[in-house]
Amino acid sequence: MIFEKAQNFIEKNIIYIIFFIYFLFMFVCYFGSNYFFFIREMEFGYLTGGDSKRYIIGSEKILNLEFPDRKSYLGYMLYIAFFKFFNLNLTYVVYSQIFLTFLSSICIYKISIKLSSRVGGIFCLSLYLFYFPIQVWNFYILTETLFICSIIFLLFFLIFFQKKYIPIIIFLFIFAVSIRPHGIILILSFFMAFIIWAYLRNNLKLFWFSILTICILSYPTFLILNLYIADQNIEYQIANAGILWGYKELNNGLEFKMSDKSNGDIYSLLIFLKNNAYVFVNSFLKKIWYFLLRIRPHYSDFHNLYLIIFNIIYYPLAIYGFIKLKSKKSLGVILIYILIICFTFTAGLTFADWDSRFSLYIIPLFFILAGVGFDSLINLKEKFYKFK
């Protein structure tokens, strides 16, 4: 009797229980950081990374009505400037990032329910809140948490689209693009998803209008891409960054032929890829492997084991969910597919990052698909037992 009551209580309140455990988890990580896995001691109530100083200085320039040096991070600098304007310590940035992660978890739960069921939603929510490589960035003065949450918020309002949400979608889109340079991938992904969505809905007027808009914007887009390629020195990154940024041992003797006539534009990049086709394809596949697998040779055995276990849990289910959702014509669902493809392709084109954080931007999307796959698997199992 007591067991049945406890079971009923858990079933009715499972979401609240998960959120309680999550905040308890964040509390333990925050106040016991010097004893917890992966996190070093937080002397000032927050952690800093290699780029944190750039964001903090940029926020101070904004408050002094000056433009920061790296404008591609303007969104996050504005975010920090908001707290500095009210004389709040950067600890409040950490608190806000934990709260935004909580809000985004509600969104990802509702998205998963919409695409599968409550069971799939609970599974997706649990993966998202207790995947430590995502949650650890809540404690850093870095762009990762805000960028991940912004993508989830944007997907939520697209999947639950209403006309009144259009201003919110526009704001979220502009803000997400401004947080970090990866925003350029979001722009490309959205345009591709919108064209596919218009075509699948057989809305030919909207489809051709989108094509015409892209044609009109192609020249300024071409100029922006040229500036981006030159600024990021893409040819150099492909040739010298390695399979993993800064970890030359994985190159396995891969050597690219560099041209003295490169102008640092798209045309020069295409010539570079043509002249190094075999080497590029070889390195491209290796980069994607490390990008998606997320394990690193310089991680501890425990760290890699943790990642492998999670990979085994969510990747097969995500692939199954990907197949089950292929007939969906929602703009948000199409955007999920395109984002995964574009972020993965970009990593293959440039490099897999040292700490595997760039792949975190699409990991929640795999969790959504894994929720769909998990729900489908449960339904398949129930049908099997009924048939049996």
How many helices? Answer: 16
Per DSSP E runs of 2 or more residues, the count of β-strands stands at 0
Helix fraction by DSSP (H/I, runs of at least 4): over 70%
C-alpha end-to-end distance: 30 Å
For the sheet with most strands, the description reads: none
Query: H/E element string?
Result: HHHHHHHHHHHHHHHH
Structural class: mainly alpha
Radius of gyration: 22 Å
Strand content: under 5%
Unreliable sequence segments: none
* Oligomeric description of these chains: single chain
Overall morphology = globular
How would you state the average pLDDT, rounded? 85
Labels describing this entry:
single chain; 388 residues; mainly alpha; 16 helices; globular
